[in-house]
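Second attempt. The first submission of MarR family transcriptional regulator had a stray character pasted in from the spreadsheet, which I only caught after the job came back as garbage. Lesson logged: always re-copy from the clean sequence file. Corrected sequence (169 aa) follows.
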Amino acid sequence: MRHQDRADAPPIDPALMDLPELMVHLSRSLRSRHSRELAPFDLTPSQARAFATVARWPRRAQEPETAAELRLSTLAELLQIAPRSATELVDALQDKGFVERRPSEQDRRAIVVTLSPAGVELRRRMRAAMEQTNRRTAGDLFQVLDEHERTLLESLLRKVAAAERTVEP
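This time the job returned cleanly.
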């Protein structure tokens, strides 16, 4: 017997879900919304995440000034994915003209990733569109919460996310 398509499955009452199920349910909802929002930019959520990481580099507060070059290995670490997966994401972004690869000036054996001119323009367009979309999505999804509850939820999620980084799998 085949499993039903998720779209065909009846919705599960959130009151019957435990905390991990609620997190997965909301994550799927957010990811689905995010995918629709990225469609005009021809990016998947994974590509958008990699693109955003390249676009933010080296303006990351925790990075030393000497880390001006973003190597593929560093990108993989930042995204918490296998180096091969980072290579595939950069391949896709390069095929679309959004990033460029070049040899490192510090170590010619290493490859660094930078935004292309088209990537710089895409970053500008995405930033404007995503700010609007994020406000709308947050408003839609979290409208049942008052400002205090939203702030508390954000604080709690940040606390859990920070603790998750220190816990061994």
